[in-house]
Amino acid sequence: MIEKVVRIRKLDSDTRREDLTYWLTRTPAERIAAVEYLRRQFHGSAARLQRTARVVQRA
Fold it and tell me: So what's the pLDDT on residue 51?
């Protein structure tokens, strides 16, 4: 049987510094891939975010 493991940590300045240090060691391609992964989790598997435009006629 697989047990769920949950660790609750406070986000203090040391944790933030560790996170920043980690991401600064990753290549730009790895960082973009991580953001894309999170975007797909949140928005689904759509290829891109939708953009909208509105044309305003000025008098």
Answer: 72
